[in-house]
Design brief:
The structure is a single chain. The chain is an alpha+beta fold. Helices cover about 20% and strands about 20% of the residues. The chain has a three-stranded antiparallel β-sheet, with no helix packed on it. The N terminus is likely disordered.
């Protein structure tokens, strides 16, 4: 989801847009509101189960966007699109409470909690929220012990699982096949120094954080590291790491880690802490945080931070090297790529126009429908065993990439 208009990829969707914004991969590939949880879309969440967690995820997501300086084009774009933290929270709660693909993973978690297969520790919620907001830690949900402690399962090591919350103790659901396939086994988290691909694999020593980061010994590999949590401590001009770093390696509040590009366009894993880039100043890509309300765009090699124009109904959404516009998605507008004008989406009913960009994941079709990226309209969801291409097409929210068929359950591993 972001300013660059792009069709949904196979694994795109609000689940990744929200959780990914707070917990970006660190492997080698690397307020008040007028809405309440359950409003606007037939939520299946039950009071006392995962509703508080959904609320915390939405609050943490919006707090990170508006109070942290995160070098990610998605996060930067979301701040511009939402405009205010209050509007962000209203839309996010609506999207997470029903109708979107992201809500399906919480519905599955809700089912497991109600069945007694997963237990929830309400006291850990606030501690996790503090780690996300006060620490501006983009990896908190995956790495901070207090966030992991919110849910605990009953499955012992070696037992079959489809999501980490099912596993008991300090364990995670390790995919048996890798990639986007579902299913795996509960596996104890790894000690510091062990090879890894995601922070979820690493043990958080002494209630702190467990991270998958570049080897401090300089091997160039990704290994598990552990330490205490908290806010970034590197001041302006200091050396920093992009992600997966301990507080001593992350930038302090109001700064971001500016990493230089090499001749191939690849960024260095380390950089220098600096404040957001001023309007009109040079920048490299959309991942460079400009001052609020601006975005890095222009010709390759000549990009600058420029103001983004919010277009209303029937106004132009065309773009050039000097003009960056977008439609107000959250007011029910989408860009017609034929006319390059902002037009209204429908009411979410069968056959109604819907937004086919990633932003549309926060503007759901009605229950039992999904936004078809080819037709641009709301169509009936598909069920287990039916052919699919994207997660959003399936009623449980997961399309198996190998068989290209909808699965019978949601999985996160």
């Amino acid at each position: 989801m972001g300013l660059p208009r792009r069709r949904r990829a196979k694994r795109a969707g609000l689940a990744l847009a929200l959780i990914g914004a707070l917990a970006p991969a660190c492997g080698p590939d690397s307020s008040s509101t007028t809405e309440t949880p359950g409003a606007g879309g037939g939520s299946s969440l039950h009071p006392g189960t995962t509703t508080d967690y959904v609320t915390m995820v939405a609050q943490g997501f919006c707090a990170a966007i508006f109070h942290c300086v995160i070098p990610s084009d998605d996060v930067i774009a979301q701040r511009i699109e939402f405009g205010t933290e209050e509007r962000c929270l209203s839309v996010a709660l609506r999207g997470l409470s029903g109708g979107t693909n992201a809500s399906k993973q919480f519905t599955d978690l809700d089912r497991l909690v109600n069945a007694g297969a997963v237990h929830q520790d309400a006291s850990a919620l606030q501690r996790c929220m503090s780690a996300i907001t006060q620490g501006c830690d983009p990896g908190a949900l995956d790495s901070v012990a207090d966030c992991r402690a919110i849910f605990s399962g009953t499955l012992a090591p070696g037992a079959a699982c489809h999501r980490t919350e099912q596993c008991a103790g300090d364990a995670y659901c390790d995919s048996a096949t890798g990639g986007d396939r579902c299913g795996g086994t509960c596996t104890p988290r790894k000690a510091a120094g062990a090879p890894c691909s995601e922070s979820n694999e690493c043990s958080a020593a002494n209630g702190g954080v467990g991270l998958c980061a570049r080897d401090p010994a300089g091997s160039g590999q990704y290994v598990c590291v552990s330490g205490s949590g908290g806010a970034g401590a590197v001041g302006q001009g200091g050396t920093c790491v992009y992600s997966g770093g301990l507080p001593s390696e992350r930038c302090a509040a109001g700064l971001f880690c500016d990493r230089p590009l090499d001749s191939t366009g690849t960024r260095s894993p380390t950089g220098t802490c600096r404040p957001p880039i001023a309007l009109g100043a040079a920048c490299d890509s959309g991942d460079d945080p400009c001052v609020p309300g601006a975005y890095c765009f222009g010709r390759t090699g000549a990009k600058t931070c420029q103001t983004v124009t919010l277009s209303q109904e029937l106004q132009s959404c065309a773009r050039s090297d000097t003009t960056f516009t977008y439609c107000d998605y959250f007011s029910g507008l989408t860009c017609d790529e034929t006319t390059e004008k902002c037009v209204r989406t429908g009411d979410g009913s069968l056959g109604a126009r819907c937004d086919t960009t990633d932003a549309g994941d926060l503007i759901p079709c009605q229950s039992g429908l999904y936004c078809d990226g080819t037709l641009g309209t709301c169509q009936p969801v598909k069920h287990a065993g039916e052919a699919c291409e994207t997660d959003s097409q399936c009623d449980v929210g997961r399309c198996d990439t190998a068989s290209q068929k909808c699965l019978a359950y949601y999985c996160t591993n």
